[in-house]
């Protein structure tokens, strides 16, 4: 294990490297102005790794990821690699990281900054003050269940197969994370599945209920079918505090939640594993959005989701709450001052580039730091 605080940078594809460049500037600022420094290493993932090594994640990169305190990832994927065989696609690199690091709890906070209330597609009163946390199970379910594949049938048709599988322990450990988070927030967990049509959903509901009775009865728990949860997120999102759900429903519900905050370009995430014998918890931080091929290379991407993911790393891995607060405050002040990338632009505001957004955050950090 590295002696210093170590971070592995995996910028990836499309807008990933553009956003990560701005994060690197903030990390350098932290070293200079706050004496918070990291051992930074950088490597390839996704399409960039395929181009260099023929695989979406080299074994040596996987090894590095397993040995640092935190991985910070940009985004993977893009049309250039869409026709590759399934196991070689850029996305498999990210899935391998999640699985082999055993990052079973994916925290996706959806927080609506007051300045962005009008950037949401919903009415201001629906999203103003919104602060919810989606806890997505990340290493199980239909993403990894066996059997899977595409097979030929005797009559010449083909059949695509994926399997939704969950075990008691997989459900309980992510449930524990959700209840513990709720205890520090508003004390309310909504567990979401489709127990009305799926056995894995029935088990999910039974295990979360049991876990609640055994260890977390101080928290308010309710259950909601995932299709209804999607509707309720759009109808009245402030009824939620923590939502705990499976891998696939969590993927979808967090993209829905993104639009409540104004843009997918605003949503950070933390993917966490168990605490090991040394008190260390494997962790990967990444924005919820993807590589955005439609705007890649144009200096238009919103870097704030990636920057806020770094703030989550400061908070959850490095126990640097003051520095995390500083970054989040700088982001809030920059938004309050009307500076916007195109995705969150409102009437009367002028869009700035990715790098100009980085400049603005750095200037605000300087000002806040005195
Ligand atoms: N974690 C990841 O690396 C991740 C997540 C989602 C999708 N992907 C991959 O990314 C590729 C593109 O997928 P997609 O288009 O469905 O999703 P996407 O998230 O890349 O983009 C969806 C839409 O949101 C916009 N957008 C996303 N992030 C933005 C930002 N930071 N600033 C401004 N606008 C932003 C894009 O321009 C696009 O219009 C695919 O290959 C997909 O598999 C990767
Ligand atoms: C790129 C893809 C594998 C990924 C997922 O489906 O988990 C993405 O959509 C996400 O939300 O992180
Ligand atoms: Mg997604």
TrEMBL record:
The record marks 143, 194 as: Important for catalysis. Binds 1 Mg(2+) or Mn(2+) ion per subunit. InterPro entries: IsoCit/isopropylmalate_DH_CS (IPR019818), IsoPropMal-DH-like_dom (IPR024084), Isopropylmalate_DH (IPR004429). Mg(2+) binds at residues 227, 251, 255. Its EC number is 1.1.1.85. It holds the Pfam family Iso_dh. Keywords: Amino-acid biosynthesis, Branched-chain amino acid biosynthesis, Cytoplasm, Leucine biosynthesis, Magnesium, Manganese, Metal-binding, NAD, Oxidoreductase. NAD(+) binds at residues 78-91, 290-302. Residues 6-361 form the Isopropylmalate dehydrogenase-like domain. It is found in: Cytoplasm. Pathway: Amino-acid biosynthesis; L-leucine biosynthesis; L-leucine from 3-methyl-2-oxobutanoate: step 3/4. Catalyzes the oxidation of 3-carboxy-2-hydroxy-4-methylpentanoate (3-isopropylmalate) to 3-carboxy-4-methyl-2-oxopentanoate. The product decarboxylates to 4-methyl-2 oxopentanoate. This is 3-isopropylmalate dehydrogenase. It comes from Fodinicurvata halophila. The lineage of its organism: Bacteria, Pseudomonadati, Pseudomonadota, Alphaproteobacteria, Rhodospirillales. The gene is leuB.
